[in-house]
């Protein structure tokens, strides 16, 4: 009964016209502030979730989870070694490769490139690069001599298409690390892939045998092993564990070394978003304190009368708790709905803004993706709503307790 009475009185206070218009303004600002904080938190977390999803599902579907690269001697008898590694319970697939770095040239235009000599069939087991083909055929590496699969960014820079020929220049050094004359090769573009990010401007693929011939490697030798694993977040630990079972001297390279800064940046931004937007919600909640303090001051005569009629301290406290929470709940509801809608459509919103301004917010050759991703997760909505609700509740406690300290004899005696 006491709670029902408190709720009824709080609603009467909320609907009644306040004598002091400033109180109404502060109440409105607290509602809007909480709405802004909740909406911004949901949107920011959804975007961070989107970037993490694209990192794992898109970038790490092409970038190897673990690589082993020979230090000074090529890896021999590699089929047996790949079979042994593939038996590890955490390994999905294994593939051989030969890494090459150099320049590609068309006419007078030069562009740096990282070329991977791969086995076409095995590469499809450790990478989804074949799913990003926009021209030509991935299998052309197995059927065509000196075939080159090129990133769309490089193809655009050099203005080449499937069927065109490129000259590849590969620098060489001797055992004393002195620079030797570069090697040249004429390759034909037989395919173009586009994943929508930085790799489009830096990566190319050729057949494993073509790579051997380019660098003069013996038949049956490779220079590296690529692994696709089940849990990408144990890549560092797993790379050391597997390396201890290998007889070759190799460099261990997990995606944490090559792309880990992206994941760390995402987690850092997520933490900063939590901190900053929690402060926004807390500041908005302080306005609830101001609103209730002034409301208690204005309603002190009513409080005195309620006390003389037998209202308990708990009834008075709950009355102003409900009144303060009503502002918070309205802001939370509005902010949650707004945040959810914007989070669902923010990729389209940014595409529209890019078209409107005629520019790109994320350039392909700088970032690992060229669009703003979003992934709404309901636990993030629950977290944002819970933070705002707790902050709103805490903000009502002090002014509600102050209302119980009003002495009816003093207040009514002044009247």
Backbone CA Rg: 32 Å
- Gross morphology is elongated
Class from secondary-structure proportions: alpha+beta
How helix-rich are the residues, as a percent range? 40-55%
Tally of DSSP β-strands: 10
Question: Any idea how many domains?
Answer: 2
Number of discrete helical segments: 14
Mean of residue pLDDT? Answer: 81
Strands of the largest sheet, in order across it? Answer: 2-3-8-5-7-6
Low-confidence stretches: none
The percent range for strand residues is: 15-25%
**Sheet with the most strands, sense and barrel status:** 6 strands, mixed, barrel
- How far apart, in Å, are the first and last alpha carbons? 30 Å
Following the backbone from N to C, one meets helices and strands in this order, namely HHEHEEHEHEHEEEHEHEHHHHHH
List the main descriptive attributes of the protein structure presented here.
415 residues; alpha+beta; 2 domains; elongated
């Amino acid at each position: 009964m006491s709670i029902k009475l408190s709720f009824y009185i709080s609603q009467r206070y909320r609907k009644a016209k306040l004598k002091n218009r400033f109180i109404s303004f502060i109440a409105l600002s607290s509602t809007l502030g909480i709405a802004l904080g909740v909406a911004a938190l949901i949107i920011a977390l959804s975007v961070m979730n989107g970037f993490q999803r694209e990192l794992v599902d898109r970038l790490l579907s092409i970038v190897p989870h673990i690589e082993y690269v020979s230090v000074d001697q090529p890896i021999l008898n590699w089929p047996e070694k790949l079979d042994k590694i593939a038996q590890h319970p955490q390994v999905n697939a294994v593939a051989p490769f030969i890494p090459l770095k150099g320049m590609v040239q068309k006419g007078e235009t030069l562009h740096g490139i990282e070329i991977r000599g791969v086995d076409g069939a095995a590469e499809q087991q450790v990478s989804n690069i074949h799913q990003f083909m926009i021209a030509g055929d991935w299998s052309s590496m197995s059927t065509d001599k000196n075939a080159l699969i090129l990133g769309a960014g490089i193809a655009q820079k050099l203005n080449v298409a499937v069927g065109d020929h490129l000259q590849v220049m590969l620098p060489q050094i001797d055992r004393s690390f002195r620079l030797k004359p570069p090697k040249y090769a004429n390759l034909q573009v037989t395919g173009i892939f586009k994943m929508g990010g930085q790799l489009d401007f830096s990566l190319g693929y050729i057949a494993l045998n073509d790579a051997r011939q380019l660098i003069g490697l013996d038949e049956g030798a490779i220079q590296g092993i690529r692994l696709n694993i089940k849990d990408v977040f144990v890549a560092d630990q797993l790379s050391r564990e597997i390396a201890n079972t290998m007889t070759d001297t190799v460099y261990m390279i997990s995606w944490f070394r090559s792309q880990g800064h992206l994941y760390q940046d995402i987690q850092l931004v997520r933490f900063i978003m939590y901190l900053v937007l929690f402060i926004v919600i807390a500041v908005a909640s302080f306005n609830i304190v101001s609103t209730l303090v002034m409301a208690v001051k204005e309603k002190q005569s009513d409080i005195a009368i309620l006390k003389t009629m037998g209202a308990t301290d708990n009834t008075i406290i709950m009355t102003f708790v409900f009144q303060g929470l009503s502002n918070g709940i309205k802001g939370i509801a509005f902010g949650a709905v707004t945040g959810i809608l914007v989070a669902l459509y923010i990729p389209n919103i940014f595409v529209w803004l890019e078209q409107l301004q005629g520019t790109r917010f994320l350039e392909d050759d700088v970032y690992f993706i060229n669009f703003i991703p979003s992934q709404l997760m309901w636990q993030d909505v629950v977290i944002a709503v819970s933070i705002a609700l707790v902050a709103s509740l805490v903000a009502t406690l002090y002014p509600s307790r102050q209302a119980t300290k009003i002495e009816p004899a003093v207040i009514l005696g002044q009247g």
